[in-house]
Design brief:
This protein has 406 residues and is α/β, with parallel strands linked by helices. It has one domain: TIM Barrel (Alpha-Beta Barrel), CATH 3.20.20. The protein contains twelve helices and 17 strands. A hairpin with a 4-residue loop joins strand 13 and strand 14. Helix 11 runs parallel beside helix 12. It comes from Chilo suppressalis.
Length: 406
């Protein structure tokens, strides 16, 4: 009996409860919107995220990290001083970690490609990143190079190894200063396979933020989901390597050597819209001719924020359907078709991340949530959906030593 009790005690000591990671990207350009769409640092709730990421800074021709919007980011020349205000959120939540994201889709790939290929430019990048982080009070840097070996990259295949080399050098300098290093990466396996040596880069970063959105969109000739959890209607015969789902993305990244305790599943707080070719053919995989409606505040063709789409659904005659296989909703009205995530699908995705023992989830991005409670689901509807599930069963095996604090 004593032996049984001893075994039970040892088993109990081998697990620890941990707070799961909730990474929240903040698109700072939302401060330039007007009316109900305007979202400033003051709108952020520092208690709903473990990590807040300020998007985006850029890099110049010398490889140095620079502000893209100095009038908003900095204090000089009567600027809005957003960097300071953003980092002062840690006074309200002392456990909060803040990071500065460098890159993003609009920054392109060429600058990163040239920088990563040059030892001198890599040094400039690392040193300027550290100066910026320390000057403004960030806890670390997120490298959002979209994407190595693709788009306008001049160095092509060499980018893959150069990216890993860059992260290796960065981690040495960042560890010396207690700084966090994370990356934002493509979720789609066929895109990721061209851009990353997963096992190599994963060892040098604290977190890998999986951008599990834009898996389908109005650039496709048929409607499909922005970010299906599983394969959905009409996809039962699609080859595994061709699937564009959260499940396929997570399986790919884990199979290629990314540790689950570093992988963060991205959750889109926006939808994609299509214009149907025939209004009467309006299911998944219906013929489409391009982007549909855009959000009245965000003004992005073929895309719409959650706070905008939930208001449209609430006030107009949209028909809501669910692809039960894919685990996500969609909505139609006449020739308009919209793919999005809601409270229910977000909770299901968080449960999926928990089931696979991932580090947590990432929101792209918080200013798209219903931050003004326009739709009556409470402020930050989707972020609160995350918190309904995120720390359920968050138990990790601790036999292999202590886990670094993130």
């Amino acid at each position: 009996m004593k032996g049984v009790l001893l075994v039970a005690l040892l088993c109990a000591l081998s697990v620890v409860h941990t707070k799961k990671t909730v990474v929240c990207f903040y698109g700072s350009w939302a401060a330039h919107r007007t009316g109900q769409g305007r979202f400033t640092v003051n709108n952020l709730d520092p208690h709903l995220c473990t990590h807040l990421v300020y998007a985006f800074s850029g890099i110049n021709a010398q490889g140095m990290v620079v502000s893209i919007d100095p009038k908003l980011d900095l204090a000089e020349d009567n600027g809005a001083d957003n960097y300071r205000q953003f980092n002062e959120l840690k006074k309200k939540n002392t456990e909060l970690k803040t990071l500065l994201a460098v890159g993003g889709f609009n920054e392109g790939s060429a600058k990163f490609s040239r920088m990563a290929a040059s030892p001198a430019l890599r040094k400039n990048f690392i040193e300027s990143a550290i100066v910026t982080i320390n000057k403004h009070g960030f806890n670390g840097l997120d490298v959002s190079w979209l994407y190595p070996n693709q788009r306008d990259s001049p160095n092509h295949q060499a980018d893959v190894d150069n990216f890993s080399a860059l992260l290796k050098e960065m981690r040495v300098y960042f560890d010396q200063r207690g700084l966090l290093l994370t990356i934002a990466v493509s979720a789609a396996p066929k895109v990721a396979s061209k851009s990353y040596n997963v096992a190599a880069l994963a060892q040098y970063v604290h977190l890998v933020n999986l951008m599990a959105h834009d898996l389908h969109g109005p650039w496709d000739p048929f409607t499909n989901h922005n970010a299906a959890l599983h394969k959905g209607e009409g996809e039962q015969n699609v080859a595994k390597e061709d699937l564009l789902t959260d499940e396929a993305a997570v399986e790919y990244w884990l199979s290629k050597g990314c540790p689950p305790e570093k992988l963060v599943l991205g959750l889109p707080f926006f939808g994609h819209t299509y214009k149907l070719r025939y209004a009467r053919i309006n299911g998944v995989n219906a013929p489409a001719t391009g982007p549909g409606i855009m959000g009245p505040h965000t003004q992005i063709p073929g895309a719409i924020a959650y706070f905008e789409l939930c208001n449209l659904i609430r006030t107009e005659n949209w028909l809501i359907k669910r692809d039960e296989l894919a685990g996500v909703p969609y909505a139609t009205k006449g020739e308009n078709w919209m793919s999005y995530d809601d409270y229910q699908s977000i909770k299901a995705k968080v449960a999926f991340a928990n089931k696979h023992n991932l580090a947590g989830v990432m929101a792209w991005s918080v200013e798209y949530d219903d931050f003004n409670n326009v739709c009556g689901g409470g402020k930050f509807t989707l972020l609160n959906a995350i918190h309904q599930v995120i720390n359920e069963e968050s138990i990790i095996n601790n036999n292999n030593g202590t886990k670094a604090s993130l």
